[in-house]
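so my prof wants the structure for this chain in the tokens format not the other one, which i didnt know existed until like an hour ago. anyway here's the sequence
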Amino acid sequence: MLELERFPLRTRKDWPHPVHDWLRPLGLAFVDELDDPVLREFMDGLKSAFAEAGHEVYGAPRRDTKIIVTTDRFGEPTNWRRSLMFTGRRRFNLDETPVVLTALHATHAELARIVDHFAKIIPKSPPDPADYDFPGLSPRAYRTLYEQGTRGGPLMALTRLLQSQSKSIRILLVVGDETPDYVRVIDLVGAYPRVDRRPPRGRGDAYFYTDIMLRLATVMSTEEITNHQVVDPPVPRKTWARLSTPRAMQEAAVELGKRDFFTEMVLIANLVHVPSISDAVASQYSEGCFATWEPGLDALIATVTGSARPVEKDAITDDDLAVIVGVREDGSGAIVRHVEGKVNDPPSSESVEMMEMDAYLPSICLPDSWGIAREVPVVRSKLHGHRGITRFDPGQVEFVPLDPAYYHYPVSCATEAQARAIVSAFAASRALQDPDDPRLAVFTILPGHGLVVVEKWAAGKAPFAHLYELMDRGALVVDNHIPQGRVEYQLGPDGLMELVASALEVT
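here's what i got, hopefully its the right format
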């Protein structure tokens, strides 16, 4: 199992939610340059929560500062020259580009006004560009806001608007008129869980700030797993041409596109104008990853990362595929073989979790009818997407939950913690640990993020075909709804398991 270092923080023993045991002390600076009493109160409370938990809080950024919490104005565009995400390293003479968290303050009326506006304009098809004419955005931004809103609702569109205007990916949306009443924690994939100030079970004000602190510490305590390693020998072009899996992956992309599984790629240039963004954030954001096992190479064939160059996941080519043969010993990335004669971009970060899960699941020998005289992993195909599952047939599909802490304190994409959560969940699957279990599909839900669904070997079917059939006959209902917190299913009157509203979902 991918192991995360353990640096326990000081937390109360009677804390009402499970907390990750791998949280570590952080060093962070608070930079508040706005005259906003609500934000000042919020920043002071959050600063105290970090300090009391054992983090090192600086009054001003130091050379080695990696995390900065700052403030900005809600609904007003920030020039990229003022954005700490783009200029913080140079402005404070830092050793590396910092992670920036930006707090924005909106009154209840301001927030309601813009959410209501999105609720009215998103249903219009085609979209009217004039409806999306917000300050500071590119004339082409309407397409992205419309598409994101159509997929995730008004709050998803709002997250993309705020990220674009503030020139910041990680946002703390502080809502209140004279004091902070609640906060939405917004990240790259568009998560927006709500943390209310009203404390549970009679707890004091400190609960509010400690809970937010723990959410942020969770995200900041884990590392990205994109340090992929290329090994020899490369796959000969003739060998690659004889394989059936690359063509099956391309056909799967088309089928997923027919079912509207992937969202349109988010191009930063379509949202805002900035001269150079490569040091701060990728130029585009392509959602999802999928992979299937190739017995001829004893390897996983997976889609490449969409942050390196534009990748349309529903229309891939050979150049959009990578060969994964293992995971680095420290878990920091995948081990990759290049293919002669084609473009070899890095794989998606999700390739680590997809490859790693096989180490904790059985291998099987397929019947002679497959024509494969070797052992293969019990899982054939794997799909990671930013969608949810609202209903499923428990006789054909198994749901595997994450460890409890991941529902209240979720992790971000491309991280070792996310990989660990997914690997652990699928390792506990009854359907996968027992190859004879008739359920051929297993899934989990990542709160505020999406889903991972895998498929066992289905006789006579192409990779992913069994998943398509489950979707088409309503045995696995994929939906735009992504829970923002706890995920729970209950048996419905028709025998299908139905999603129970997340405890933290507020629309």
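also thought this was worth mentioning. The first strand starts at residue 27 and ends at 31.
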